Amino acid sequence: MSKAAADAVYDALVNNYGNPSSLHSKGLEAQHYVDAARRAAADSIGVNEREIFFTSGGTEANNTAVIGAALSRKRQGKRIVTTAVEHSSVIEACKYLESLGFEVVYLPVNSYGAVEISDLKEAVTQDTILVSVMYVNNETGTVQPVDKIARVIKRSGANALFHIDAVQAYGKLMFKNSRLGADMITFTAHKIHGPKGVGALYIKNGVRITPRLYGGMQQHKIRPGTEPAPAIAGFGAAIREIDYTNIDNIRSLNGYLRKQLEDIDGIVINSPENALEYILNFSVIGIRSETMLHYLAEKGIYVSSGSACAKGQPSYVLMAMGLSKDIADSAVRVSFSKHNTTADIDELIKALKDGINSLARKDSK
Fold it and tell me: What do you get for the CA distance between the two ends of the chain, in Å?
């Protein structure tokens, strides 16, 4: 977390600690944090602040968007279109809807992890009520053509809502919803150096969804419950620190790591060349992801095997791209930030080489 975000959290916890729903002065002080963060979030994607709803994170926002939209439109149709490589919070929400009688089409992806527009055109029929596609894949960095997808939906004549999971894109790719054409957008704080446990959902004015929670009057009853003002304050501070000029540095680091990895026997790079530069996915063939991750962690290097929500399971994203189970079982995901340096990459490469030699010897015994 950035210092500005941490300071904002601390200040809201210790000094302006009121309930933002309360009418006394302490409550109004806390509400100021919520209002300021909502304005910052809205401005960052070019929407109205009344269209921003704070959640506990990306999972809740995705569930609210997907399930809430489907339930509100079930009389208009039962068909939902998504992809085989969505985050588990969308995939599992869709499976839940299938249990309620909805029809879900999971679009395949090509070897780069991207949806083919021709498949989308075929899938979006007149009874389609929702299309949900992530902007940037959280495991490979593949960028989906969401603006083209929006145009396909519009031209299809289907009365379908378009939801974009932009968790991995937000703060890294500069975008405004006037270009994307989404009805709902998910984003979250911890991907931009804000606190964990707080996210946001943009819902276009006029779009009606069925709430997932019931209770108070907060946030127009879409997401009732006492707003976590400290977390939201940290989110707002992180939003105000977003710096898109850092992409050149990240691109340089990504290229440097790619070149180093290509020189190591037994390593296969899984992220496509045109993936978002903040993510690089590769496999160390023959060594399970979990084994390598623990080895690297002992060296003070913290990477992932894919989505942090997968808890060590083989990547269904890589499998959907047509990669073998051996590659999926040995995948490593590196995520870059503005704090990383070439020295960090040098340490990673050295540890990878040591790990390959050491772990391979253990397996051969």
Answer: 43
Which residue has 């703060």 as its token pair?
171
Cβ atoms of 181 and 292 within 8 Å: the answer is: no
- State how far the Cα of 166 lies from the Cα of 150, in Å rounded to an integer: 14
- Residues with catalytic roles: 309
Return the structure tokens found at 91.
């995939």
Best CA proximity match to 284, nearest among 329, 318, 320: 329
In this predicted model, what pLDDT tens digit does every residue of 172-197 receive, in sequence order?
999 999 999 999 999 999 999 999 99
CA distances to 173, 225, 252, 280 from 347, rounded to whole Å, are 28, 45, 17, 16
Task: Read off the pLDDT of residues 14-27 as tens digits, 9 standing for 90 and up.
Answer: 998 888 887 788 88
Please tell me the pTM assigned to this model. Answer: 0.94
- CA-to-CA separations, 327 to 110, 136, 257, in angstroms, rounded: 16, 21, 19
Concatenated DSSP letters for 91-114?
A: HHHHHHHHHTT-EEEEE-B-TTSP
